[in-house]
Amino acid sequence: MNEEIVVEQDSRLNSLRNLTQGVYILYALSFFAGITAIVAIIINYVKKDEAAGTWLESHFRWQIRTFWFGLLWAAVGMATIFIVVGFAILFANVCWVIYRIVKGWLNLNDNKPMQF
């Protein structure tokens, strides 16, 4: 009976891990089709409770924060584009979001939680 529980938990974690990888892919694709970021954040919030208490919970938090802070800085950049500094803010934001996607994806690939 205990073996069945362990197999079920491993299967659940593997499914969540695959989903987390899919969300990283959606965030990466958002540079080409922005709607994928909306799909990704919805998945993050819908599945967040399933990841609670696992090492994948930190990835969900990382992805959610990446989305909201990226959106915030994109809005600040767009609002200040007329005074030229907005271009620098937008460029820095793109670099930061790419960094977060790559760092998260690499940690996921190594089965490591995200460190905050």
Q: If you had to describe this structure to a student in words, what would you say it looks like?
A:
With 116 residues, this protein is mainly alpha-helical. The chain is 80% helix and 0% strand. It has one domain (2-109). The chain is built from 4 helices and no strands. The longest helix is centred in the N-terminal third of the chain and has 28 residues, at 2-29. It is elongated, with a radius of gyration of 16 Å.
Summarize the structure.
By secondary structure, the protein is mostly helical. Helices cover 80% and strands 0% of the residues.
Descriptive labels:
mainly alpha; 4 helices; 80% helix; elongated
Strand proportion, as a percent range, falls in: under 5%
Q: How many domains is the backbone divided into?
A: 1
Fraction of helical residues: over 70%
Elements, N to C (H/E): HHHH
Number of strands: 0
Largest sheet: none
SSE diagram, text form:
Blueprint: H1 2-29, H2 35-51, H3 57-79, H4 85-109
